[in-house]
Amino acid sequence: MIALILGSGIALIFTMVTMPLFIRLLKSKQYGQVVRDDGPTSHATKSGTPTMGGVVVIAAVILSYFVTHGLLSLMGRPSYGITASGLLVLLLFGGMGVVGFLDDFIKIAKKRSLGLRAWEKIVLQAVVGIGFAVLALNFPNGQGLTPASTAISFLRDTNIDLAFAGPALGLVLFVIWSNLIVTATTNGVNLTDGLDGLATGVSIMVFGAYTLIGIWQQNQACGLDMSANVCYTVRDPMDLALLGAILSGALIGFLWWNAKPAKIFMGDTGSLAIGGAVAAFAILSRTQILLLVLAGLFVMITLSVIIQVGFFKLSGGKRVFKMAPLQHHFELSGWAEENVVVRFWILGGLFVAAGLGIFYSEWVVAL
């Protein structure tokens, strides 16, 4: 537990202290947000607000992870050490952050609301996602557990194994499945990141949930007995819990500067990185389908865009919502931005609570 407190504290302090310096740097270079022309008119005042705050969040998470493990070693405290699962989370988190940074930088440099071309973003995300998926099926520990498996998971691995016709096909199908999850989460967080503090607050709750899940999985790990129904075959649950706490701490520090009126936005640098981390947690903690509940707000907002676009095309120009993503519909309906954010936080918290309830209930029933 000391590791979680130490890691989240370092990330929180680093973000709180470094962010105002980064804001000052961005302002001096006039690196500001370019607001969409078709967005709510109230957002016009946000034009020019510094963006790419995700750079500091990424730096805080990576630094805190390695510093925490280093300090634990120096203190002689019990530690599970740097693990393959931890490094894989950082790979997907940082890799998606790099893609987002390129997207943000192009927007700023060319003073437009569109950065990378769609195909460029897809290719770069696929490279990172494929690399993560292939590596996640390697690095078995002493018990033969790899960070991920080819089995589709809900609250733990199910009997649905993508390697039903052999390991080669299993690898291909797992890469596709893994990248579907990554694409869904990165888009979900990116679409949610439209109001001050909205995506940040919901992400804190999701990572907090994965911290609790990691602690529980560690306490109920299978050990040498892999046959028990109630134990978990997750390779490095405690290190995942540490990273969940670190991410929560870093985002709490960021939220201080991102709450309305935001002094800085996370940009695609932050939203794609966070989406990548969420996907990594779902895959490595063997809770892939449960992610639909834990990240239910991201799912709801993504569905609003799919419904809006689909209905618009099918109906010849009619709309279901005044504007998509969903949060902007409520803004145009007369809700103040603060009301939308707080009420969506409440919804996000309810989704997280429901997900944790389902996770724990399954263990109780399995006893």
Describe the structure using short key phrases.
mainly alpha; Glycosyl_transferase_4; globular; 367 residues; cell shape; two-stranded antiparallel ribbon
Q: Which regions are unreliable across 5 or more consecutive residues at pLDDT < 50? A: none
Overall tally of structural domains: 1
Oligomer: single chain
Molecular shape:
globular
Estimated helix fraction: 55-70%
Task: Work out the radius of gyration.
Answer: 20 Å
Major sheet summary line: 2 strands, antiparallel
Q: What structural class should be given to the helix and strand makeup?
A: mainly alpha
Order of adjacent strands in the largest pleated sheet = 1-2
Q: Summarize the helix and strand pattern as letters.
A: HHHHEEHHHHHHHH
Number of helices: 12
User: How many angstroms separate the termini?
Assistant: 26 Å
Total strands: 2
Which percent range describes the beta-strand content? under 5%
Mean pLDDT: 92
